Amino acid sequence: MTRALLIPVDDAPRPVDVDGLRDLQRLVGGDIEAVGWVFDDAPTIYVNESGKFDGLPPNRAIFAEHPGTRWDGSPIRVGDLLDVLYGPIVAVGFDPATGEDRDINDAEAARIMSRFGENSIGSGLLATLGVRLVARYAE
């Protein structure tokens, strides 16, 4: 068993035990996709691979925490919307030496609670609605 955190769509993160791939798939509701870039794999978060396209509800918005540059050369400013994650999210520790998941540690759990805790509930829905409104008025 691997200690992890489940981030439900409309609730705060909570601890869960994960027993392999099938458990991860069950928790996210389908095939998994690692979204390692959010925390640089410390921890790794998993979402439903096709949740965004299959109509799963928006969960959490991901906003830039550091300035940077997009693939097209445009700037990324702190607070810019980078993505929205859809459906349930599972966060686990990751061991880069073995390429295997491991128990989430206290520091990683604290990062999850800081970014995806109670204050972020509904952020995915709000961001999705905002993008749709901007797109509608841009037409």
Please, could you describe this protein's structure?
- The protein has 139 residues and is an alpha+beta fold.
- It has one domain (2-138).
- 25% of the residues lie in helices and 32% in strands.
- The chain is built from 3 helices and 10 strands, in the order ββαββββββββαα.
- Strands 1, 2, 3, 4, 9 and 10 form a 6-stranded antiparallel β-sheet that branches.
- The protein starts with a strand and ends with a helix.
Quaternary status of these chains?
Answer: single chain
Tally the helices: what do you get?
3
- Largest pleated sheet: 6 strands, antiparallel
Label the overall shape.
globular
Q: How many distinct folded domains?
A: 1
Helix content: 25-40%
How much beta, percentage-wise?
25-35%
The sequence of SSEs as H and E is: EEHEEEEEEEEHH
Radius of gyration: 15 Å
Distance between the termini: 50 Å
Task: Count every beta strand, where a strand is a DSSP E run of 2 or more residues.
Answer: 10
Give the low-confidence spans: none
Mean pLDDT across all residues, rounded? 92
Structural class given helices, strands, pairing?
Answer: alpha+beta
